[in-house]
Design a protein that fits this description.
alpha/beta; 49% helix; globular; 360 residues; single chain; 12% strand; 2 domains; Spore Coat Polysaccharide Biosynthesis Protein SpsA, Chain A
Amino acid sequence: MEWLSLILLLPYAYLLLRIYFFLRKTGTYHPQDQSDIFVSVLVACRNEEKNLPVLLSCLAAQDYPQDSFEVIIVDDNSTDNTWQTAALNSGIKNLKAIKNKGTGKKKAIRTGIGECRGELVVTTDADCRPGQGWVSTIASFYSEKKPAMIICPVAMKGSGGFLQRFQEIEFLALQGVTAGTAAAGNPVMCNGANLAFTKEAYNKYSRRMHEEKVSGDDIFLLHGIREGKGMISWLESMKAIVTTSTSPKLSSFIMQRARWISKAGAYRDSHTIILAFVTFVTILILPGLLLAGIFNPVFLIVFFAAFILKSIPDSLILMNTSERYGVNGLMKWFLPSQLFFILYVLVTVPLSFYKGNRWN
């Protein structure tokens, strides 16, 4: 009876190994020709006066012609000088700083979309750092493939101890799952920190954005496009990547992840629901086995077997994504991160029901 728990972990191992199989098949994109489409870069932000100047410098340094893209900054009721910082910027030819017509990130994005002139909209966050070829690579990919949505890579970097390494590992794993499921034709997640979509697709499918949810401006749009049979592609290119910083404090990190999880109740996409459910069941089984081991040592043996069964596909995905993004030295943190992940999920899931979470 004790070994029944291992059977319950088999769906997780199968799904993750399948994702790993498709992840290995993804190839790096190399632009064939320079695109000339007009691109709108959209940044919705709140209280980001410290981060915004660096992002604007990165956007001013793009190798895409300045006449061929615009930057729309939407200030969501900031209490600092975010709007003034954007409005006074002189390094970008086509830059517009506007105020959110409502409250919250989804309303800010909707406000910004109304001002976008480009056929293709690319979203990022104020604390992200794109490289010089960011806009040009995404534009070329769109011109060649013509998808309704392009899921682009995000890397997380930080200096410090275990908390920063854990965040990097978790984010790399999420990127692996994102790329693998997209390669399999069943994308289940994306990140608005680096996401491109057509204005037409947004206007057609944004009614499914679940405005009542604090988070999910990105994934609900993805689900809407999937439901409408629109083409969604993963862009594998270091030139298309943006980097962001790890959270310096455990509390801010936990609350951010709780916001992410809070949108799960509104999921309607079957592939996303299945993966989320199987993952959560797997996470619940592991601490359950540890507790049972207090009363029956056999359960401790089962726990270690289950831990290994979960860790094998996880490590394969992590090694693959680490190699892709040129990240070294993280695997030594893998096992402690696996153990911490159990506690982390058990804390963040209950917190996701807390209504006081804010998008920023």
